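Subject: for your reference before the review

Hello V.,

The reviewers asked for a structural picture of the protein, and I figured it would be easier to keep everything in one thread rather than splitting it across files. Below is the amino acid sequence we used in the manuscript, unchanged from the supplementary table.
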Amino acid sequence: MEAFQLTPIIDPEFWYEYVGSSESKGPMAAAVHARWGTILISEYIPPIIGLLEQTKEVEPIIVTEGSKKGKQKSVAMQKVTFLIRESDTPNLSVEQFSSVLNAIQNLYNVILKIDNLGHADLVVGALDSGSDKSIDIIGVAAAIAKLSDLLLQSWDRIRFGQSTKMSASIKTASDGLTLLTQIASAVTAGTLSATEGEKLRRTVVKSVDELFSNGVYTEEM
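And here is what came back from the structure prediction:
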C-alpha cells in the first residue's frame, strides 16, 4: 500500500476531509494518488505478473497424422528445460552439444514409439548462456512429461546408488525404470520383437548415460 500510495485510504479521517475538498488541497491530491494506485494494482499489475511468470507452455500444435496425407490433428505441447553444468569458463564443445541433443532426441523417439504417439518433431524454444547453459525443448506434452520423469527416475537411482562409476551407476539405474518396463512388456506381448526391444533398451540406457556424463540435468532434478 505504501508503494502505491494507498495508505491514506485506511484512515477514516481521509474520507471525511475528502468530501467537498478541491484538487489543490491535500486530501484531494491524496485521493488522486489513491485512485491511480488502485488502477495500477487492479488493471496493470496482473498482466505484468503474467508476463514475468515462468509457466509450462501447453498449447496446440499441428502434426501430420500417420500416412494420411494432408490430414492433421491438434495435440498439446509442453516445454522442458535442460541445463548443462560448466566450470567458470565455457568448455562445452560442439561435439558434446551435438551428443546432448541427439540423446534427447533418441529418448523422445523411443517414448513416441512405445506410447504410440506418432511422429512429432522436437523444437528448440530458447537457448541461454547463464552460469549453466540452458536449452528449452518443446514437444508433445505426453512425451515431454514422460521424458522428464524418466530422467528424474534415473537420477534418483544414481544419487542413492553405491557405485562410484557413472557407467555402473547407469546400468543399476536402468533397473525398474517405467519406460524400460514398458519396452519389456511390449516384447512379451509380441508388439515388439526381442531384437527391436533390446535395441530400444540400449538406446535408452546409452542416451541417459550420454546426458548425465555431459552434466545435463533438469529443473526437477
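For the response letter, the relevant points are probably these. The mean pLDDT is 80. The CA atoms of residues 82 and 93 lie 16 Å apart.

Happy to draft the paragraph if you're swamped.

O.
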